[in-house]
Amino acid sequence: MRTKLNIKIALFLIAIVLSACAKNSNAPSSIAFWENRTQTVLLDFETDSLLSDLEVFHAQIAETDQGVTKGQKALKLSLEGDEKRSGFSYKPSSPIDASSFENFALVFDAMTSSKEHSVHLFVAVRNAQGQGISRSAAIPIGKTQTCYFELAGKYLHEDTGLREDPAPWPEGGFHMKVNGTKQAIDFSQIASISFYIQYANFDKDLTIDNVRLVETPPKDPNYLVGIVDKYGQNAKHDFPGKIISDEQLEKLATQELQELKEKPVMADRSRFGGWKEGPKLEATGFFRTEKLADRWALVDPEGYLFYSNGIANVRMANTTSFTGIDFKNDTVRYRDPEDVTPEDSRGMVALGEEVTTTAYVAYPERNKMFLDLPSYDSPLANHYSYRRESHMGPFAHGETYSHYQANLERRYGEERPGAHLDQWHEITLDRFLSWGFTSFGNWAAAEFYDMKRMPYFANGWIIGDFKTVRSGLDYWGPMPDVYDPEFARRVGVTIKVVAEEVKNSPWCIGVFIDNEKSWGIPGTPKGQYGIILYALAKDADDSPIKAEIMRSLKAKYQTISKLNAAWETKITSWQVLANGIDYREKGSYSEAMIADFSVLLEAYASQYFAIVHDALAAEMPNHLYMGCRFASWGMGPEVRKAAKKYVDVFSYNYYHESLGVQYWKFLEEIDRPSVIGEFHIGTMEAGLFHPGLVQGVDQDDRAQMYTTYLESVIDNPYFVGSHWFQYIDSPLSGRAHDGENYNVGFVRNTDVPYAPMVEAARNFNQNLYQRKYPQE
Description:
It contains 19 helices and 33 strands. The strands form eight sheets. Strands 1, 3, 4, 7, 10, 11 and 14 form a seven-stranded mixed β-sheet that branches. It has 776 residues and is of the alpha+beta class.
């Protein structure tokens, strides 16, 4: 009896194991990488009691036996699209104690059973002090994927000039990518872990299992040594499309040139890219806007309907990366005080022998990343340049190199100095026309302006020695004090330079001035009215904006007692307020105070837009004012209301899966034509260390997501343009400006186009005008 019973038990256990194996047949081998390491399982979803610690938002949760990687249960999430965040937060009653770990990672397994859409998943971890980080991953369709990211470890917080480092353990699964920048945060006590999607293009499902903290193995001591090959590619890993020889580059160029000849410009296009087969409206000789029924439109110089579908940042300025070398000869660091071009828009800088002979290794760890940088007497040494500063990163200044430009020379040859660039200009235009694009986006190289083959947008920056004010966000730097006369002077200087470049050309659609200004973050008084709160703390004798605020408040309230009654404050005199009072940490604000902040912020924004508008009207009256390319994270109703008075076409940079509906309801209020100035999708399949702000699984998934985004823009009646950012992938070793190393290009750093993206663009652009302007 005992023997028979043991046999039955054994058979029963085998059945359980086989069942578990069947359920886990898609489980990744990367699970084994983490399995035998010191770890703490946080969520295995085997008991219902765990669900009480989950805070769910815009989602439904349920237990499932699909996608299980440990035990018998996993958590299935039904996630709502078009929401700011959809998912759940794990918030245990007391913080998770991770102090016993030395170097550790958050690890979990995830899958989606969707048959059509991958999931761009975000995970945010916060410590007991409220500090946190966010990382993200693309979850493939129907396949379980192990995801991980470090919470403590070597290089995690070290800035090496890379926005994201290589995956430390590729065999461990998908290394989740940082959103924003690296931060040094102590996660020995963890208060919450959140899993969510953001403004997704569709409702999605996601299964999560086996959430754990795991002690990580040591990193390879040569982790960052020799990671960049001579073509600027990932030297340590293979990937689809990797170049291995100059001959391969030349062969691909020859093949593409033949294809471009076979597929020239689309037949329904006018000279300026408008809809030749559509209705013809009034022709003014320049681009303009017109509203047709309920739908805004651009009109080209010949009177044809026009939609600006293009690619931004078609230039060499952002193709360079720091090499770790600097020079003792400081003439390369000279800056003209009247210069109107910031460093990230500055072109290549030739380095003479008097400079290169003073070279020294300023950043050894950085310099060791490169396998084969050319010597200064090499034919490819003309692709060295110099940056006098960076926006962020460990390099105050230094030598840079453009692998992209060197690859152009390898690809197209150099019969005479600069020949590869002339060839690049022509091939780029051939590509844009063949792929069906109607214009460039922002930041097209000025060399394209006179070629008269593709409409473009001119651009300028207002930089100079004027006073500034801060909003509290200030990602790209402080805001200008627009009441300082020097600001208006610098606006005039910049726009005169832009006007000289454009020469009143009908090929110029309009002008972008500035980019992603930090107007404030709506949602809280401190976030939305940071500019005003910052100005209130200043001394009116030293701050033009504070002096203007004082003038405005005195005109409204007459006496300080009336101001105190409205603001619920106890300011003893106007002079005390003029000297500066810091209300940024005030616990609450009266309704009247908020109302005044709103008026003052609108007045500030109106002053900014009025100055720029008037300068453009004086120097470039025939070209549209395209605004300052609002970032979705920094734009409130007061700023939009101010811009409406002066801007011809609103511009927004919006990095999500598609437009959706909820965020864009304000378009009805301003009722102005609009363009998307920037969006992109990337993937780790390209061999770079970071896919970008929005992630797909592979190039085919990326192309499908690209099409979905474009459809959401073109179907919106307020939008008259959509601009992908950018033409060329960021350098693998990080762009010199801020270390971004994203897969965001239509072409690789070897100048080889991504075939799925090209096909998606052609397919979409083939029917662009019929879809945008349907005729009854």
